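Shall we go through a protein fold together, starting from nothing but its sequence? Please make up or recall a protein chain and show it to me in full. Go ahead whenever you are ready, and we will take it from there.
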Amino acid sequence: MEQLNNGHPTVQDDRMVVAGTSEKEVVSPLLSKLRLKFGVFGGISLIFGTFFTLLFYKAQIGINVLLYSLVLLILLTIAFKELEVPRRKGAAMFYIGILLFGLSTFLTASVILQFLNVVAIMILFDLLLLYQLYDMKPWDFTKHLLKMLGLIFQSIAAIGMPFVDSVHFSKKSKFFKNEKVINVVIGVVIAIPMLIIILLLLSNADLLFGKMTERMMDTLFSSNIITIIMMTLFGFIACYCILCGAASGVQSRVSKEGKKASASIAITAISLIGFVYVLFCGIQIAYLFTSGIFVLPEEFTFAEYARRGFFELLAVTIINIIIILICTNMFEDNKLLRYILTMITLCTYIMIASATYRMLLYIDAYHLTFLRLFVLLALLIDAFVLAGVIISVYRKIFPLFHYCVAVVAIFYLAFSFAKPDYHIAAYLRDHEEVLDVEDLIYLTMNLSSDAAPVVVPLITETGEWNNEVVYEDEYSNEYYYEYQEPGLYINRYYDRIKERTENRGIRDFNVSDYIAYKYVQESDK
């Protein structure tokens, strides 16, 4: 990491060295090549910063994310070409994934999905850099994960490089060495303080001139201009730092694999945990899956029993996956240990089935929400990831990390493109005989425009609403009733959709909001 904080690299005796240190030390050739070609990579970073500002300044989320993804990949391809890094087999999958996440963001109006899609784009971008620049074959799952997280810190550590390299580039540039240019710059520097004094005096001398000067200054130093400059500068610095951070560790010495601990430690610990898991899984089979062969305690309904401990159970399944990964990476290979881990895996599958069944019972009682659907997605991903983990226990060459990335990306993309808010609204419509105002509030306030193709016709067709809303006092536990007017929420919903769509431009055009707007227009006729 030290090389990130050092001065600008120079070429001496066919070696890349860094100035500013007591001893000349050899640094990453790829990083040195990047920094020595600041004119190219600084230009790429400046283009990135410019597009970042053009696409996102005072804009909502829409097609700009897709365009941003496309620009990002084009600039990255140019950077790889300038660094003479050949495109590896499989890199196309990262390109396709990034573009698909950008497209999904363009098609949905769900803020949660939009946020998760942007996070996914950045993660795939991070992984694409590692995949292209590093030899990842000898890495295990943990090394992949640490390198992915490490790239973030390497990029932060490179924060000084854009400034150092830009100054060095300016000193070497013929443009800044030109005597006429230097004289012009000196003249401007001398004139600025004099202009300030003269403008102040003349503004006080003439009221019209003073107002004209004030308007000119407000324009030059407006918050809009400052924000545009700051966004462009941020994009430039971020892009250059990420490139430097990614290139900095390419030629780092590979650390030797340390000696693994004795398998007897893991066997002892996992056997005790496994005993508890077998007991727990027996209870799940006896009480939950049989649905009545054994009688639940009187204070529980099946829905309440399903809700209790669900998230704890989900956490345990994730912990089990981590335990298996730790055992395979930190302890010696042992046949008995593999068998015990297989037993843990089977118990984990029962826990996943139990958690899924609990959630389905809860959904049947209380209907769908985004969180409940997302939890089902997490459980499905858990099941497939666990399959990959147990395969890696028996086949060490299995590419577990890339398998997990593919599983998460594929299932989440399917979830995102499916527009869960639409299906949540459809489920509520199909499973409620009479909709009340509380349902209306949920449909119009909690769901995004993705649900409009269901919500708008439902609002239009439902002539009468049960406007009696039941509340429970949290202190007295007594129930009271309140009557609310549904028309208020319907009008707010329509106004919100119209406002979101009418305030959009070309940069932030969103398909889902546009479709919702068309449905609202049809309902107004």
